[in-house]
Amino acid sequence: MDEARLTADLTEGFDGLPPQLQSAARWVLDHPADVALLTTREQAKRAGLTPATLTRLAQRLGLAGYDALRQAFAASIRERPDSFHGRAAELISRHVDTGDAALITDMFGTLDVHLKALAGADSAARLARAADLIAGAERVFCFGLRSAFPAAFMFDYIRALVGSVSVLADGAGGRGVDALRGIGPGDILFAVTVKPYTRLTLQAAEFARAQGATIVALTDSALSPLAKLAGAVVLVRTETPSFFHTMTPAFAAVECLAALVAARQGDKALEALAGSESQLAAFDTYLNPRQQRPSRR
User: Fold this and answer.
1) Which of 36, 112, 159, 264 fits 166 for a cystine, CB–CB 3.0-4.6 Å?
2) 27: exposed, middle or buried (Cβ count in 10 Å: 0-12, 13-18, 19+)
3) DNA-binding: present as a keyword of the record (predicted)?
4) 274-283 long-range contacts, Cβ below 8 Å, gap at least 24?
C-alpha cells in the first residue's frame, strides 16, 4: 500500500475513528515528511500520543505496524523533486512552518535512523560480502566523484595505513580515470555514487568490469545503475529533510568496511600499522602534547 492510498483511506475513514486514532490520523496527514523520516517514538512525542496509538492506527489500516506505514511514506519521499532547487523550495517552505529547532531535530533524527539501518542483518551481510572480496583482492582502486569523493578518499587513506595495495583514482585535469589503465582480473574497483549518479563513475565501472575486475559498489539503491554492475553492493540511505543528500551513512559504511578488511588481514595489518606509525613519527606529523613545554617570559 502506497502513501496516496493510505492518505485516501485515512481521509475517508477519519470520522469513524475513535478520538485518539483521529489525533494520530491528523498527525500523519499533516506531517507526511515527519512520518517518513522520524522514528516512531519521536513522532509520538511531537503528536502528544503514545507509540502504541500510532501502531493501532496502522493496524486499523490493515498494516502489520507503524513501521510499515513509515516505509510507505519513505518510499514516497524518495520521489521528491530530483533537482536541488526543487528540494530547497520544499525545505524553505517547511522551515517557515516549523523553525530551526524542528529542522535540527529532524536532520539528526533522520541520520540516526539511517545509521541504525546499517547495523541490520541485510546490511551486515552486504558489508561482510564486500569485505571478503576486498580482502582477497590483489589491488583495490577507489573511485568516487563530487560528493562521493570524500568517502572514496577515506577508504583509500585507511587502506594505506594498514599496508594494503590501494590506488585512489584521482588526478588534476580530469586524469583520475587514467589510474584504471592497469586494472584487471584479481583487482577490485571500489566505486561510490548516489543519486544523482555521476556518469563518469558508471563509465569507470563499466571499463573496469570489461577488464576483468570486480566491482564493489557503495550506493543508495539495489536498482542503481552502479549496483547492476557490481559483485557486491553496500547500500546507504541518503534522504534528509534538507535539499542535499547526506553522505554521513556512506562515511560510516566506509569506516566499518575498512575495519572488517583490517580484521581479516590480522597480523599483516598490525605490522603495516606499526610501519605507518614509525614513518609518521619520523616526519613529526602529529603534535604530541608531551612534547609541548610552557612558554617562558
Assistant:
1) 159
2) buried
3) yes
4) 275/163, 276/160, 276/161, 276/162, 276/163
